[in-house]
Design a protein that fits this description.
Elements lengths: L4 H7 L11 E7 L8 E9 L6 E7 L3 E12 L2 E7 L2 E3 L4 E4 L5 E7 L8 E8 L4 E7 L18 E3 L2
The protein binds copper (II) ion.
Copper (II) ion (CU) binds next to strand 8.
């Protein structure tokens, strides 16, 4: 009987040594005219883990290129600049909202309409990929008490 215990114990700690993760909350993409070459997306990037997590790159099958931008006032003029990397400690988050930080999605593969859903993949420096579904909508999908609905980010393990 005792021999049965060992395999069970060994199977439990199956987590990878590096468990960095980020999640995307209340994310949405602003509707734009069908001819738009650039679209903006918003939401909140949160580090729910216990170790630092660094966002290394963004990609979406619906766009040619995705960047993270920040708004900065330079000589009294609002400008947007690309943020190359974002590092979040455990529990930290970065807010993306109109007028501030945002996802900049370039060269849509096809015109997007309100109600569409776009997949966005965040690749972390620790080689983890997190893919979230973003609705094309006029704002965050605000349900009662901010429900997460059915579009909670799901992870792909490499
Ligand atoms: Cu921008």
């Amino acid at each position: 009987m005792r021999r049965l215990l060992l395999p069970v114990l060994l199977a439990l700690p199956a987590l990878p040594a590096v468990a960095c993760e980020l999640k995307l909350e209340d994310a949405w993409i602003r509707p734009a005219p069908p001819t738009a070459k650039v679209v903006a997306g918003f939401g909140r990037i949160v580090n729910p883990g216990t170790v630092d997590a660094e966002l290394a790159s963004l990609a979406s099958p619906a766009f040619g290129r995705v960047e993270l931008h920040e708004m900065k006032t330079v000589d009294g003029v609002m400008q947007m600049r690309r943020i190359d990397r974002v590092k979040l400690g455990p529990g930290e988050s970065i807010e993306l909202a109109p007028g501030g930080n945002h996802f900049m999605l370039f060269d849509p593969v096809a015109p997007l309409a309100e109600g569409d859903t776009v997949e966005l993949t965040m690749t972390l420096a620790c080689d983890t990929e997190i893919t979230a579904s973003l609705p094309v909508a006029k704002g965050p999908m605000a349900g009662p008490a901010g429900t997460h609905g059915g579009d909670a980010p799901h992870r792909h393990h490499l």
